[in-house]
């Protein structure tokens, strides 16, 4: 059965913002007590916002589409709390550029979704995985991923500095898109790492990402893949493959088999030794840039968590030489990856080490994501596979920088293959 509340379906049906608002309010009343994805939601405000959208003389491409916004992204009519005591109830009174763009396209901003503190920690919060409330939805975009998976929003905005968009997409069984770095303006997003911070997006239908690519003005690409037969896919295990869980490994083996059955040509992509230290370079760069990003927070927030203090005190002992080396490695790997990726139509890699872990204290391991974030390439996670406990496991499709539409197109095809919706090729 098709989902009537995807952005594409809402547009096709010509639903009013008032209609979608009522559907969302009903879903939040039903699912939120268990899932707890929202940091801020006001039904009366949502109805008033919907009335204003419907009163516009023209319908935008996202007219009435309900969007959740991670609570580290500024919103003019809602508080932005960063899950921090210092910003409790803070109302900056302006929209982040991405929210401003969505509003101009007619989107209905539902509310603010739960984040880990400053989107910079893997300490968990109140949000639960909609598939199993005893498990984490991932983070730091915890509420955004869970809200879309629980059908409390059609789309949601997250962020990614390590694995904060792609990992929750995997854990929640939805599509996740980490665009090319800075292809969508980051103005109005809480700063952590200028090198890695990227706006992220969630949807239940890959067609919605195509619509968002139009709204945000991504480069058009001719001759995008429309079928899997003959598609050249490089399967990258990455230097952190040793952190994969057995269930995650089994899911990736199944993904490879499904893609081959659908006619794709899948071959191993062994990255050169230069990439062996990129995970460590990512950590060094985040420590360096987090040191400056959180200095004011540490100085002005009594009782702030020690992990932020540790960054400002440089407890890892980074030096000017070690940091220059980390930045140089990142630069070299970006150029080299662009060269390597020209030999494939797309690169396939895990979205997470395995299923969503049990418990809410931690949001999971980002080992399979941080390399791609530092490389600043577009990544789209496709759902459809499950692990040994029946929980979702996603597969990431990685393209060269600014080829976001290619990653979206292949992820869309892959999800159909994972779901058995494509005819096997004889």
UniProtKB/TrEMBL annotation:
InterPro entries recorded: Amidase, Amidase_dom, AS_sf
MF terms (GO), sorted A to Z: catalytic activity
Gene3D superfamilies xrefs: Amidase signature (AS) domain
Region: Disordered, residue numbers: 120-145
Domain of life: Bacteria
Domain Amidase: 20-406
Protein name in the entry: Amidase
Species of the source: Pseudooceanicola nanhaiensis
């Amino acid at each position: 059965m098709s989902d009537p509340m995807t952005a594409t379906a809402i547009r096709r049906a010509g639903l009013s913002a008032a209609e979608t608002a009522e559907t969302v309010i009903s879903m939040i009343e039903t699912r939120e007590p268990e899932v707890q994805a929202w940091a801020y939601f006001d039904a009366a405000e949502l109805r008033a916002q919907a009335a204003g959208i419907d009163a516009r003389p023209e319908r935008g491409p996202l007219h009435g589409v309900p969007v959740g916004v991670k609570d580290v992204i500024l919103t003019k009519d809602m508080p932005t709390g960063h899950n921090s005591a210092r910003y409790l109830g803070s109302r900056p009174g302006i929209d982040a550029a991405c929210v401003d763009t969505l509003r101009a396209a007619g989107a209905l901003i539902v509310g603010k979704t739960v984040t880990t503190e400053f989107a910079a920690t893997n300490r968990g919060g109140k949000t639960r995985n909609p598939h199993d409330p005893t498990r984490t939805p991932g983070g730091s975009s915890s509420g955004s991923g869970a809200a879309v998976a629980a059908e409390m929003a059609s789309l949601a905005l997250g962020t990614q500095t390590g694995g904060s968009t792609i990992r929750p997409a995997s854990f929640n069984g939805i599509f996740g898109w980490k665009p090319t770095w800075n292809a969508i303006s980051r103005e109005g997003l809480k700063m952590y790492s200028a090198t890695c911070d990227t706006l992220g997006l969630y949807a239940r239908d890959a067609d919605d990402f195509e619509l968002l690519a139009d709204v945000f003005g991504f480069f058009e690409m001719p001759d995008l893949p429309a079928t899997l037969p003959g598609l050249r896919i490089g399967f990258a295990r990455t230097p952190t493959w040793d952190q994969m869980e057995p269930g995650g490994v089994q899911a990736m083996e199944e993904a490879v088999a499904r893609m081959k059955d659908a006619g794709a040509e899948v071959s191993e992509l062994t990255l050169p030794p230069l990439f062996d230290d990129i995970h460590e370079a990512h950590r060094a760069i985040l420590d360096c840039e987090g040191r400056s990003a959180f200095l004011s927070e540490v100085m002005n927030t009594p009782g702030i968590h020690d992990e932020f203090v540790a960054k400002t005190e440089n407890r890892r002992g980074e030096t000017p030489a070690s940091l220059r080396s980390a930045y140089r490695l990142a630069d070299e790997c970006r150029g080299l990856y662009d060269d390597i990726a020209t030999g494939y139509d797309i690169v396939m890699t895990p979205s997470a080490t395995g299923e969503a872990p049990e418990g809410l204290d931690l949001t999971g391991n980002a080992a399979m994501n941080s390399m791609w974030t530092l490389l600043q390439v577009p990544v789209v996670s496709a759902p459809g596979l499950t692990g040994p406990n029946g929980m979702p496991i996603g597969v990431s499709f990685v393209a060269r920088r600014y080829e976001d539409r290619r990653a979206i197109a292949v992820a869309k095809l892959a999800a159909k293959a994972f779901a058995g919706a494509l005819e096997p090729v004889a």
